[in-house]
Amino acid sequence: MEGLTMSIWTLGVLIAVALAFDFMNGFHDGANSISTIVATGALTPKQAVLFAAFFNFAALWIFQLKVAATIGKGTVDPKFVDYYVIFGALIGALAWNIITWYYGIPSSSSHALVGGLVGATVAKSGTGDAIIWEGFGKILAFIIISPLVGMLIGGLLMVLVAWIFKNRSQYQAAGFFKYAQLFAAGAYSLGHGGNDAQKTIGIIWLLMITAGMATKDQSTLPMWVVYSCYFAIAWGTYLGGWRIVKTMGTKITKLNSISGSCASMGGAITLGLATLGGIPVSTTHTITGAIIGVGAANDVKAVRWAITGNLFVAWVLTIPASGLIAGVAWWIGTKFL
User: Which pTM does this prediction carry?
Assistant: First the structure.
């Protein structure tokens, strides 16, 4: 760490800030898990957030820490990271999350964190060897790939459901999907917890590596870090981000129990595949893509493409905006901390 020493107090404060980001991640992105079941009336908002929070935490026992490894040692080289970089990264991600939450924009907490980490690292060391371009490039590529995959799977599921229930009335199909959408939303919440909580685990892991309290070997990562991160995101999800629920559940396209089930399951499958592959994707991007897919499968005109275009602009801006804020925060940290 180029001669910097980190006190236990500094380490504790930065871990607390990381958990605050994790909480905000759940608060900000909880809408992704519950928007479809709230929009269709399957559960009340309070029931939905409790439901989603439970499955967010349950993901702890489902997925290995492959995403955490990508964030902790696959995006920037740990030898270029010090506690000023971590501080800048967390402030950049938190600030962007708060801005987008306030305006009801479903941006990616994941990409805000990645942008913050890269921005603070670049501010300290320049690009050069500090950025691990293989890992960072993969994250950038999936800004495009993950919503497209979600859209494809969501659309295909909608077509498959239409074929399976072609001899049944809409009323009969809706009766089945009244319960099926709960299964789909639960699966999506598992994927959300499994992918997003691990990003904060990766940041704390990176922080502990720089403090000399852990190594790149996963066995050196204390389990209390894992439990704390899953609890923080679950608690944030429970409190919910209602400004974003409206955008996700009603503004992109009109959802019912059938299309809501297909959207949630399309997002869940996409997230599950990404998490198993250790790819830190955006839960916001995947569910948005899936919602667009089911809407387009019914009728291309049913999708409000102007809203979708605005969301895409926010997605493109997330990494550079959070990175810029992180760079400024890194500079402030070096002067005043």
Answer: 0.79
